[in-house]
Specification:
Distance between the termini of chain A: 26 Å
Mean pLDDT of chain A: 89
Keywords (chain A): Cell membrane, Membrane, Transmembrane, Transmembrane helix, Transport
InterPro entries (chain A): ABC_transporter_permease, MetI-like, MetI-like_sf
Family (chain A): Belongs to the binding-protein-dependent transport system permease family.
Number of domains of chain A: 1
Number of helices of chain A: 14
CATH architecture of chain A: Orthogonal Bundle
Number of strands of chain A: 0
CATH superfamily of chain A: MetI-like
CATH class of chain A: Mainly Alpha
Number of strands of chain B: 0
Largest sheet of chain A: none
CATH class of the largest domain in chain B: Mainly Alpha
Radius of gyration of chain B: 23 Å
Protein name (chain A): Sugar ABC transporter permease
Shape of chain B: globular
Subcellular location (chain A): Cell membrane
Strand content of chain A: under 5%
Oligomer: heterodimer
Largest sheet of chain B: none
Helix content of chain A: over 70%
């Protein structure tokens, strides 16, 4: 016992502050949030403890999931995530592929592709709000005006003001911001593949395309998986960009994270908590298998 | 490279930059393929820089210059008025953001370094599980803890604004800082720590005199990472501060989406102000910034 403590004691003691913080502020609060989400805590008086709350179990969840309004948010989230993922992965991959072979000015290209990553979504939202202005024709500004100048008038559209697909317009700035990151991931992947592999392929008489198709791409699968998980979970949590481009109450572009903010602002804590838990479940479905798999491989 | 903890990790130099494994082969001839590559790459740059162009020209345009027909033209007369207005509106918030971000980065980096050391090189049974449990904190949508978090901070009388935000960024920064340090310490030879143990040094002593001195590069990476993500945070800012005591992202959002007539010139100048510190860090310490990206994931 004593021996065990001497081995386990010091490391655990050093970890203790962080472990306690994580236990309370991650796991404890997830549990606390869940308990709020199964109450009828819908008013300011209840939120501040003036009036009592009672347990209603999963009523808030069923109400939410049955409402057209929230289903619209979930649909938006799905659309946004698909477009965001496909866009960043495709562009990031192409950029990495173009930069893979030695080329003059590689550093400059890399730096410029990556720089949007250093900017906040709120700041880029300011300019993208202008670019995605829905006015057309005479009053057009932003991208619509640019299309006119380029003679591509038919491309003009009302961007995020479209009820069904408006959310896709918001994915454009997201793609702009994170394609460089995916490029950096893939580029590191390309560079991590030993040259012998390519050489071996070429020796066997494979064409350049076949070397990529059969030798390099399979090696990149783990990187692709990481990129999917990282971009995917960012997309599911997306909030800043939507808030700064369209207003929170904007029906066209709302997602669960925005609904949660709106519910909280009107002191509907139970609904806000329920939305939080739903988001957590969605993210966990993506992230937990990945973490478990990673953990296994380490052993 | 690793939330991606398991991907085949390319060798890195001290800064976390992947080492170039390949020398120039000279394989590619001058010619069509090469030209096409350049064209594609330059096209990419032009697209990426479109928003930057808009930000700059609009921030120098006067109120009379706002006609949509001239949206993409250079300003008719260049004016600094927007920049002055934006500075007046944002400078208190900019200052508060520095006050918040600096302590938040330093404390979180230090905690992450301790955790990383223990998990990588003073390990114990179950360390991997502990690490995974910590890591999960990085991925959770903060919406799932926000309501009780608000109540706790209220009950504990933690003042909204800078003090609340420092605490939050420290707490929720722990997973990513731990991850980066752990991955870095994993690359340190076991012998280094063993030698110190054989010499009779305890854990703290080993950390202090063996590990800490070689941790500078990853401290830089972690500090930049924390600085950038805390600086750019909007979610916690919205829930835990107001326009009177909040950081610059909140102030900028109020400036841009406020009740007043929308003035794009001022808000774009404001967006440039708000981005300046992180952009300066990116330009000066770019390779460390990339190191952080590679070793971690991203906080949305």
């Amino acid at each position: 016992m004593k021996h065990r403590f001497r081995r386990l004691g010091p490391p655990l003691l050093l970890l203790a502050p962080s472990l306690i913080l994580m236990a309370v502020f991650v796991y404890g609060l997830i549990a606390a949030n869940f308990t709020t989400s199964i109450t009828d805590n819908h008013t300011a008086a209840q939120a501040t403890g003036v009036e009592p709350t009672s347990t209603v179990w999963f009523e808030n969840y069923t109400t939410l999931l049955a409402s057209d309004d929230f289903q619209h948010s979930l649909m938006n989230l799905l659309l946004y995530t698909v477009v965001f993922l496909v866009g960043t992965l495709a562009i990031g991959f192409v950029w990495a592929w173009l930069l893979d072979k030695p080329i003059k000015g590689e550093g400059i290209f890399r730096s410029i592709y990556l720089f949007p990553m250093a900017v906040s979504f709120v700041a880029s939202g300011v300019v993208w709000r202008w670019l995605l202005n829905s006015n057309q024709g005479e009053n057009a500004s932003g991208l619509n005006r640019l299309f006119q100048i380029m003679g591509l008038d038919f491309l003009q559209n009302n961007w995020w003001n479209n009820v069904t697909f408006g959310i896709i317009a918001i994915a454009i700035p997201a793609i702009w911001q994170l394609s460089g990151y995916v490029m950096a991931l893939f580029l590191a992947g390309f560079r991590g593949i030993p040259d012998e592999l390519r050489e071996a392929g070429r020796m066997d008489g494979a064409s350049e395309w076949k070397v990529y198709r059969y030798v390099l791409f399979p090696q990149l699968t783990p990187i692709m998986l990481s990129a999917l998980v990282i971009i995917g979970h960012m997309s599911l949590k997306s909030f800043d960009l939507i808030m700064s481009i369209s207003k929170p109450a904007n029906y066209q572009t709302k997602v669960p994270a925005v609904d949660m903010y709106v519910a909280k602002s009107s002191f509907d804590y139970a609904t806000a908590a329920a939305i939080g838990t739903i988001l957590l479940v969605i993210v966990a479905v993506v992230v937990v298998p990945y973490l478990v798999k990673t953990n296994r491989q380490e052993k | 490279m690793s939330t991606t903890v398991s991907t085949p990790v390319p060798p890195k130099d001290a800064t976390g930059q992947p080492v170039r494994l390949r020398q120039d082969k000279g394989r590619e001839r001058f010619g069509l393929a090469r030209t096409l590559r350049y064209v594609a790459l330059v096209l990419g740059i032009m697209v990426v820089l479109v928003p930057v162009y808009v930000l700059f020209i609009t921030s120098f345009k006067g109120a009379g210059d706002a006609s949509p027909t001239r949206a993409w033209n250079l300003p008719e007369t260049w004016t600094m008025q927007n920049w002055q207005d934006a500075w007046t509106a944002l400078s208190p918030a900019l200052w508060r953001t520095f006050q918040m971000v600096i302590p938040a980065s330093i404390i979180a980096a230090f905690l992450g370094s301790l955790n990383g050391f223990v998990l990588a090189r003073w390990s114990f049974r179950g360390a991997n599980l502990v690490f995974t449990l910590i890591l999960f904190g990085m991925f959770i949508p903060y919406q799932a803890v926000m309501i009780p978090l608000l109540q706790i901070f209220l009950d504990a009388n933690i003042p909204s604004g800078v003090p609340s935000l420092i605490l939050l960024h420290v707490i929720y920064g722990i997973p990513i800082t731990t991850l980066i340090f752990r991955n870095y310490y994993m690359t340190i030879p076991h012998e280094l720590v063993e030698a110190s143990r054989v010499d009779g040094a305890g854990m703290l002593r080993t950390y202090w005199s063996v590990i800490l001195p070689i941790s500078v590069p990853s401290f830089v990476v972690v500090l930049i990472w924390q600085f950038t993500s805390a600086w750019n945070d909007f979610l916690f800012a919205v829930f835990f501060s107001s326009s009177q005591n909040g950081p610059v992202t909140l102030a900028l959002n109020n400036l841009a989406n406020g009740a007043m007539l929308q003035n794009y010139g001022v808000s774009m100048a404001g967006a440039l102000f708000a981005s300046l510190p992180t952009l300066v860090v990116y330009i000066i310490l770019g390779k460390y910034f990339v190191g952080g990206l590679m070793s971690g994931s991203v906080k949305g």
